[in-house]
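Hello, quick one for you while I still have it in my head. No rush at all, and the record is pasted right below.
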Amino acid sequence: PENPDNYQIVNGIVSTYGSRAAGFSVSLGRRFTDVYRMSLGTTIQEIAADAQLPSGYTFPLGAQVNPLTGQTTNTLTGIDPNRPSAAVGVTAPSLAQIDSTHPYALHSVTLGFGADTRDDIFNPRRGVNVSISDEVSSRAEGSDFNYNIVTVDAAKFFPVMRNATFGLHGVVGLSSGAIPVNKLFIFSDQQLRGYVDPFYGTDELLGQSELRVPLTADRKFSVVGFIESEAHITRQFAGSPGGRLILLGGAPSEIGGSQFLGIIHGMKTGDAPAVDLDAEKALQGFLLGQIKAGRVGAAHDLSEGGLLVAVCEMLFGPAPLGAELDLSGLPAPRQDALLFGESRKRQVAPASTSPQPAVMAAAKAAGVPANPIGEVTANGKLGVRTARGPLEWDVSVLRVGWETSIETAMKRPGLG
């Protein structure tokens, strides 16, 4: 600014932050027993950082005390415009105010203790794993910084259910003195699921819990899934009566390689359904957006059995449901392909009455074909209106066939 004593704070200015360090770290450890261990380490580094801003801008600092010099600054006069300590957005006596005009010496000593009673370090069922570290940096060590950082990381595991494990994990980090920017505690998306922007500060407190369920008896294979919000868990069941069923992606038109041909006609023939990756990406992106917006709470693809099988499986939820479909207006060169074709990039999604216009408008904007095909009911019947006449089934009868399909296939003459 022209007058450094009269400046304005503005937003939306982009800066580029950079840091560099040169030096070495040495750590020695000893295990006293199968449980207890200790380590001692030292770090000698030269660190530097800068944050580049467009000409004429500087980071606001206000009246702050520099922990390195003890000087108080009330104006922008004489301030390094690229000081990185202000660029991170944290201004506090516990954060060393460094500038980009010269490097700084960072010398520290770290003492650590640990205890580990886990029965398996990779797949524990019970036990505790605790580590405590204390890092000290002082001018007596030739450092430009005076600080102390204590970190406690602890996890405990409990056997639950038949073969699962419930785990609790906690981290506590405390600092005193003025720590440099590169010593800030950072929570990234790996610690805080669902957050894109990292969190950082001079102290930290983190608590986590998890349930581990092995997929195999030897506990050598497992899958971990993370969701941003429980409200975004999307199941295949239609939910409750009144939902409007929407077919996304257009009417199915391919019958080759389908379950219908194989089971009903005993034929394995025809070309497999065509794959359009761009259309699939557009459909999946649109569907995820509608789920996050709260307009769609369930979805089912047409990959095995086609449209009628997908709708049936959506009705096999905890509560008895039915559906009334009207497919007479859909383009259908072949009715068997419309009812049982397994064309790619198709989904059936129920939407309540009020969000349906918003879903249809969003589908049009995303270039995804969307056709209302019916409504979820509470009468326990699946009724379908086609260009060749009506069809109807009792959902409870269909469900028995669905639930006992493996049992039926395994039956042999004379074995019951």
About this structure: The chain has a mean pLDDT of 83.
